[in-house]
Design goal:
Number of helices: 17
Organism: Nonomuraea indica
Largest sheet: 5 strands, antiparallel
Radius of gyration: 55 Å
Number of domains: 3
Protein name: VanW family protein
Keywords: Membrane, Transmembrane, Transmembrane helix
Structural class: alpha+beta
């Protein structure tokens, strides 16, 4: 049964000071009082009849607030979901202003789920496509030289490293091996690439190219651009220096100093004359630049070289030479006399430049005394060097002896002073104690007892070079190399000069056959080298010849040129080494005597490889010397030592690369053929 109405309305107190964001609407009307809902009452039981109503709740007397609607997470406006109106209503419910005119744009809804799902998928797809765009061509390019790569116009892109190397060797060799024409004072000569020591380094060239698995940048370059590489070239400076020396020998005109010598009793005058010399250092630089930068020509410079002797000094020396042979010179010691006739004076007297513009007399007293010293000194008193003689195939020691003899240096000075004056021409001679140059103690007890190394080479008879070979052999005969001593052929023999008995002969210098004093002595150096080689002695310095000659053993020849190219070997034994030489009109032999350390020494040779054909040229140059062509090749030689029937050691392998020697045909400029 419904409760009876009291007929009065109960007013609840006004609530002030609500927290921010809390609307008064939750309490009823705009003023905060509880208001009944407007409009007709909903059908159904009244609030008073509802279970737990005022009666049940014991509120007594006042009207109850309307039933609270179901809770919603956000107030929903009448606008479309996601619209600005909807978002504004939601913001108003939270912020305390249901329909306020200002809304903050910072509070936007998160991106819709669909867009959040699509964007990562697109990014993944792009990454996959980029990887495929790189990996597919990268795999195709891997293991080869990067596409678009070329060397001096020769395409090697896409080839393996081995294929690229073979292609460059085949197609680029002709380009990089082009000769250079050198011009010297209007005359032109050709320098071939091998003469300059030019080497094309294929490995270094290809190492500059990109290969292997390419990076993304490499792939892009391979697909869109080209890479041009320059061939890596190198110059063997030592070879080029030899070639320049050969050019210089053909073009140098040494300054000629004034000189007076005798032909019989007649003074022969050589007037001073200026000359020109090739600038060697400048020539090496210019030829190198021409080859490395593909320049076809190089102009080389001849520098003037002035003679110091004056014509006046030559005229004065000529007059003095005439007086020198006008009468004999008498040598006197006590009651003994010896005469130097005018012919002997003339044979051993010359007037040479003093380096200051004048000429001075030079008298070879030692040579002049050879024929007359026995008239002044008893032979039993003469000094003697210790040496060895080979008797019945065995070396026999000849002991040294201190003696008395004419002081040759003093005699040379006295004769030079006397011949320039008139009147008395008697020269007092003084004897002095002369000690032997080689004492017995120096060469005795050195174990010089047997042949340990011997070698022979042959040559053509009756040529100027034969004279030089025989002369060097005579100079060296009997020389002893002491234990631990390093033997130098240039230091022992000295410069090859006319005064020392040498003559002009042909010799290859820097790839060119030239005429020099002492030409041909490389054959003696080769003979001595092989004797020391099979004697088991240590090699110190040797320069192989540029070209192979059949009369020498391949890989075991020795070039000799004073003072630049020497032959040196060390006596690394505890015994002395005696050098004995013998020569005929067609051969020279060197024998080394010591104590044998090895049963046998062998030269093990490889097969000749890398043959290179020689070229043919025709020359009409003055002084042309015809040359037979010789093919080039490379050979290895290893020295092996045996003792007790077993190998005890072997030297490091020596590789010799012989250049092809051009065939030179000399043709007269007037000969149309």
């Amino acid at each position: 049964m419904p409760l009876p109405s009291s007929g009065t309305t109960s007013r609840r107190p006004r609530i002030e000071g609500l927290p921010p964001g809390v609307s008064r609407d939750i309490f009823g009307g705009p003023d905060g009082s509880a208001q009944p809902p407007s409009g007709p009452a909903p059908a159904g039981p009244s609030a008073a009849d509802a279970p737990g109503g005022p009666t049940a709740g014991g509120l007594g007397g006042g009207a109850l607030p309307p039933v609270t609607p179901p809770a919603q997470p956000w107030p929903v406006s009448q606008g479309k979901p996601g619209s600005s109106a909807s978002r504004s209503a939601a913001f108003g419910a939270v912020g305390g202003a249901a329909d306020g005119p200002e809304r903050s744009s910072a509070f936007e809804d998160p991106e819709p789920p669909r867009r959040r799902r699509v964007l990562p998928g697109v990014l993944v797809l792009l990454v996959v496509l980029a990887l495929l765009a790189y990996l597919v061509p990268a795999v195709m390019m891997s293991g080869a030289v990067l596409r678009g790569t070329s060397v001096a116009g020769i395409d090697i892109g896409g080839l393996t490293v081995t294929q690229a190397a073979d292609k460059l060797r085949t197609e680029l060799a002709a380009k990089v091996n082009k000769p250079v024409t050198v011009e010297i004072s209007g005359r032109k000569e050709t320098v071939q690439a091998d003469e300059a020591g030019l080497e094309f380094d294929v490995v270094a060239t290809i190492s500059e190219a990109r290969s292997g698995f390419p990076s993304p940048v490499d792939v892009w370059r391979g697909l869109t651009s080209t890479t041009e590489l320059q061939p890596k070239l190198a110059i063997d400076t030592s070879q080029l220096v030899r070639t320049v020396e050969g050019l210089a020998k053909s073009h140098d005109k040494e300054p000629r100093e004034g000189r007076v010598v005798f032909e019989g009793l007649r003074p022969v005058v050589t007037e001073p004359e200026d000359g020109v010399l090739l600038d060697r250092d400048d020539a090496v630089r210019r030829i190198t630049d021409a080859f490395l930068n593909s320049r076809p020509t190089a102009v080389l410079t001849l520098r003037p070289a002035k003679a110091r002797t004056t014509p006046e000094a030559v005229a004065e020396a000529r007059a003095q030479a005439q007086r020198a042979v006008a009468a004999p010179v008498t040598l006197a010691i006590g009651a003994k006399r010896a005469t130097l006739p005018p012919a002997t004076l003339a044979a051993h007297l010359s007037f040479v430049a003093d380096g200051e513009g004048g000429l001075v007399p030079r008298f070879d007293a030692e040579a002049a005394l050879a024929a007359v010293e026995r008239d002044l000194v008893d032979e039993s008193q003469a000094p003697r060097d210790a040496t060895y003689q080979i008797v019945d195939g065995k070396p026999r020691l000849v002991t040294a002896r201190t003696g008395r003899g004419v002081d040759g240096r003093r005699l040379a000075r006295d004769v030079a002073r006397v011949i320039g004056r008139r009147g008395d021409r008697v020269v007092p001679v003084r004897l002095s104690v002369v000690r032997p140059e080689v004492a017995t103690a120096e060469v005795s007890n050195l174990g010089i007892k047997e042949n340990v190394g011997e070698f022979t080479t042959t040559f053509e008879c009756c040529q100027p070079r034969a004279t030089n070979i025989q002369r060097m052999a005579a100079q060296l005969d009997g020389h002893v190399v002491r234990p631990g001593e390093t033997f130098s052929l240039n230091d022992t023999v000295g410069e090859r000069t006319r005064e020392a008995g040498y003559v002009e002969a042909g010799q290859i210098v820097g790839g060119r056959m030239v005429e020099i004093v002492g030409g041909g002595v490389s054959q003696f150096a080769t003979t001595l080298y092989n004797a020391a080689y099979f004697g088991g002695f240590e090699e110190i310095e040797r320069t192989p010849m540029d070209y192979y000659a059949a009369r020498y053993p391949a890989g075991r020849d020795a070039a000799l040129l004073y003072p630049d190219r020497d032959l040196k070997w060390r006596n690394d034994s505890e015994y002395g080494v005696l050098i004995k030489t013998a020569s005929t009109g067609t051969s020279v032999t060197v024998t080394l005597w010591s104590t044998r350390r090895y049963d046998k020494v062998e030269a093990v040779e490889s097969e000749r490889r890398a043959p290179t054909a020689f070229r043919r040229t025709t020359s009409s140059a003055p002084g042309c010397i015809p040359t037979a062509g010789t093919a080039g090749f490379t050979i290895d030689v290893t020295r092996v030592f045996f003792k007790g029937g077993e190998e005890v050691k072997r030297d490091a392998k020596q590789t010799t690369k012989y250049r092809p020697q051009a065939q030179v045909i000399c043709a007269s400029t007037n000969d149309p053929g």
